[in-house]
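Case study B.
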Amino acid sequence: MAPALELLEKSIEPLPTKAFPGTQNGVSAGGSPSLESQEKHQRVMNVFRAFIADLCQQYGEGHAGSPMGMTAIGIALYKYVMKYSPKNCNYFNRDRFVLSNGHACLWQYLFMHLVGVQSMTVDQLKSYHSSRLDSICPGHPEIEIDGVEVTTGPLGQGVASAVGLAMASKNLAATYNRPGHEVVNNMTWCTVGDACLQEGVGLEALSLAGHWKLNNLCVIFDNNSVTCDGTADVANTEDINMKMRATGFNVVDVYNGDTDVAAVVNALDAARSSDMPTFLNIRTVIGIGSTQAGTADVHGAALGVDEVARLKRSFGLDPNEFFYIPQDVYDFFRDIPGRGEAHEAGWKATLAKYREEYPELAAEFALRVAGEMPNDWTKCIPRKEEHPTASTASRKSAGVVTNALAQNINTFLVGTADLTPSCNVAYKNKVDFQSPELQTVCGLSGDYSGRYIHYGIREHAMCAISNGLAAFNKGTFIPMTSTYFVFHLYAAAAVRMAALQNLQQIHIATHDSIGVGENGPTHQPIAVAALYRAMPNVLYIRPCDAEEVAGAYIAAIQATETPTIISLSRQGLPQYPQCSSREGTLKGGYVFTEAEGGDFDVTLIGVGSEMGFAMQTRELLLKEHGIRARAVSFPCTRLFEQQSREYKQSVLKPRAGKPTVAIEAYPSNGWERYADASVSMNFFGKSLPSKETYEYFGFAPESITAKVKDLVEEVRRDGIGILRGDFRDLNGSLQIHLEH
Amino acid sequence: MAPALELLEKSIEPLPTKAFPGTQNGVSAGGSPSLESQEKHQRVMNVFRAFIADLCQQYGEGHAGSPMGMTAIGIALYKYVMKYSPKNCNYFNRDRFVLSNGHACLWQYLFMHLVGVQSMTVDQLKSYHSSRLDSICPGHPEIEIDGVEVTTGPLGQGVASAVGLAMASKNLAATYNRPGHEVVNNMTWCTVGDACLQEGVGLEALSLAGHWKLNNLCVIFDNNSVTCDGTADVANTEDINMKMRATGFNVVDVYNGDTDVAAVVNALDAARSSDMPTFLNIRTVIGIGSTQAGTADVHGAALGVDEVARLKRSFGLDPNEFFYIPQDVYDFFRDIPGRGEAHEAGWKATLAKYREEYPELAAEFALRVAGEMPNDWTKCIPRKEEHPTASTASRKSAGVVTNALAQNINTFLVGTADLTPSCNVAYKNKVDFQSPELQTVCGLSGDYSGRYIHYGIREHAMCAISNGLAAFNKGTFIPMTSTYFVFHLYAAAAVRMAALQNLQQIHIATHDSIGVGENGPTHQPIAVAALYRAMPNVLYIRPCDAEEVAGAYIAAIQATETPTIISLSRQGLPQYPQCSSREGTLKGGYVFTEAEGGDFDVTLIGVGSEMGFAMQTRELLLKEHGIRARAVSFPCTRLFEQQSREYKQSVLKPRAGKPTVAIEAYPSNGWERYADASVSMNFFGKSLPSKETYEYFGFAPESITAKVKDLVEEVRRDGIGILRGDFRDLNGSLQIHLEH
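Model:
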């Protein structure tokens, strides 16, 4: 026996499998079909595992170990427990399944094939790790594939998405179900490996699932005691069961999870009737059946030709038969498409009765199922004449819009990472999303129909859970999150997953720029914008006043396949009713104001809370130096990039000898595309009051004016434009000292 | 009583304070001085809390609540338990203290003043939230301030740094202590609020502290049951004590932590003799003494003029006396500087004896204390002629250097987020950093002298803990981390803290670019480089071959105030012994090869694993189209920016009509500074084998040649250069669909 395997056996406490009420003679009580014999299960497992070995052997690589170890779990889920319809994978009330240990994707692909997902052919299975462009078997599951709920791979993200999927069901059920009419009652199943229980984002999300008592969530731990570095003990010796109990989960052990299908079925069935989320700690052996079973060697590698042959022989299979699925194994799964159709038909019947009894609710529900918003959402966006004219923080302007949207449209789930008093997303008459049980336990208000979500101080989980909310059924929810912009760096890996999956979300990012002030350099979000401006399929929008805020919301709502970050100021901002426009905002950048008289000497680009500096500098330049400046507002570089070349040139007006200067309290990175120089923050900030922070770093009309004047004069003197590679950081840069 | 306060009282189990052996008559056994009377403590607490209230009232803002609630904890720590020397805050063997709830900084500043840290005057205390540029009382504690160990504020970072500080002590102690000679034996104390126990990075780090049995770490939970959103219950109802026990902590409750100094002292003292890390769950009342005590209203706000007056009266203080510290309160802390000097003198005496007994070890230790590396580290960097000439993955070239450095120099602590088989940082004869107890418990090898660290699948904690390792005493350690580059997005908030604190680290980031292949878009790190290139004080270096890898390590070791990310390929890369140079790498960008014959038509910028495409395109352009191309290698934009204008122009050679094209499989963002066009990835990747992924996205010499040829012809045809705002994304961009 391999040393790691010995350790594994030692670490398993010899407790009996927990017995559940209603479980008799191997037939489970939770509505699952009768169990077939263990002999039959073993046959299916052998064929399954040999097929996985063949798939990885094809190109001599891939993840074989976990799919082999998890085979019994898969049979329990796909054959007995999950309610789904392989002929219509997107049937609304289906159970959701998330493979949070996404590298085990072959497991999912092969089960999808066996249960009859039509696109998942043997030919497709063989495309894993191939160079085929039409493959639907990528190295990690992707949301675009029929039967895959969310893209997984980056560890911890899947389980957080699963929490979001379970929340989505809870919220819909609480909102639309009526006594005797359960139009939403699906479960969420999520497999995890060691990693998802080590990654912070997973731990944050699990803590919330426990708090919210999401009893429609079952987390299935493929506890094979092995990670890439060897035995999982090498970096983790905590008592996971105790930890999960402390976190509010119902914890169930299964000790022979790689062979005992009945035990797994019982445990899964019991999860359906738990009053808490369930954590199944299922002991398995990675790469079971191979001689390297139970070791890290079978984690991310093929077994080798000889070993695959040996394994098949030991399974009673022909070593010369490859990709072998005999008819009896297909037959084993033959009932599933029909059962799926029955689930769907049952749901439709429920829906029909519901429609009769509750026509208005049913109409709204139908809209939600269709992923559509009420057409009149535009009424929630204030008209230009409704904006205040006095100085207003853009977080306040945004609060007005969030309030109107969230009050009136159930599509919006609005959350905060413990910054309700700061982010202005709490809306009138909000109801908190909470377990109603907590009303008696600790006096909290709220229930599952609530759409205001207290995520606690868990920015990463907030955004990762939002991915699940948005993925439940596209358009049914538009999750909104809120925190300080700098903390979107904690959440970056989750926002990236949203962008990759084309999930619509609105992230309210307040306290942007150095204007946040006293909280100091830790809270002044230098460089975070550079990330989101570069990240594909993200709209990072920095509006400069209430009108641009309106435009930012319109863009965010219209971008149905895209997460949007609306970046907002803590401090008051001047309003520019004569210059700002929502239409301009939707184009990403636009002429804010031309120079007096038409001709100009310099173009100033202003962004967000720094637009005021551009406008004041423009005045000073004229008054004190006779320099004619035009101003461009640039709330969103990505939207601007989508405009025509002609439009872009009409905004930027590139002319030799007439430089363009961007003014933004972020690093200059990115402005080189549009400007010759910038007044930027190529260093970290400082703890001072807002205005003084700006002044300290040269963001004051007087200092900017002096620098722009010098630049204009230099360019005039030297003739033509500024050379490539000679971009001017007018505020300078941090120098890195290399010791010699 | 405020409702939140009632809840708080209800939630406290009525257990007695745990009694510790050797604790009698209020005098603790752990080497602390005798306790003064509770009456005296109450007097000091009253004065302290009133002073905090005055400080926040000054500017009508700031965080008053936690400092007031934590006053008794502070007295216990600063007066009785911590071993430190206020006259020499950096004395090497001092106990380390981390305020992970950094917003409570006034608490730390005021205690620093009271115990005699000379720079922390009353005048300085009053500068909190002022516009004074010379303030050493910023909104969150900063490492530059005498007496502050690490910068905190972004929640969860501090506690992870504390784990690093405790590891550093353990490693030094195991390496240098000898029986009867304890040259390192300090404790690490860390206060946390609810947030640090919710944030994923904190949870990851705590899990490791438990695993490693860091009994020199004591985490002090200021359990005031309140967060910004109100009662902490609103987002967290887990059983934190059970969770911490499951994580491997010794858990101790203190129930009257805002008044009972003796109880806190006992608990803290006991932590010194625990065989596990200690978690003190100390119940406090936020803003105690004020009428809003126990509510979120006192978290981040001043109390108001009238309320401050009322509070002072209730404390028996004169409401008209401001910033009042009477002599008896100073007297209470008067013994501390002397005790600090005694600690230091004791350590020096220990060191003197040690030097006699172990002169060689003592010499090495002295070098570590001085923060210096052996001079001969350069021998660990392979010479140019030692590189392989065949295609080699840069992760392998880097492995050679890491191996030599880590084998020979104790300064390097090398870690991995469970990617030992992939990242090539495991060095010959490595010893794992582990608790020696785990050898018997689960057969793990390693002990605390080990310098190879299995962080598990916890990228964020890996980097955040590394901040503590680097901050223990600058230069004593250079932490190295390793994971796939895409997962540095998980760790971004921690790397940012390293950059902000000027902490030297080397992050080995393998599997960069889309060349990672089959793992697919989740693992192909689009946009991560844009973040790190924009982040101040980070060196992001992408070497193209073994020689540039050597240069990258030299830069990383020479950058003693800077974290460096060395970005490496999974796949084999061609070697360019005729072109590549470490000297060029240190300049960030350099001429790789000029065009044949001297004059040129186009400049191609190649980076890292895409340099091969630039070189192959260069050949094809000449052969097939007679276009003469020069090639520039550009491993590090930040190092290049530090060069003179003349040098930069000599590399880029900007000429009208001779375009520059950057070739990199990342978004084009940033290349606009140096190029007119780029072959980039302005979209997410795809799961295909490495070469096919490149080809799919147009990274193949033939397709690049065609695009560059078109561009050169267009520029020739139209005359001069490419206009501002007209940068050419030769591979196109992802379009975001806005619904109308």
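The radius of gyration of chain A is 29 Å. The remaining cases will be described in the next quarterly update.
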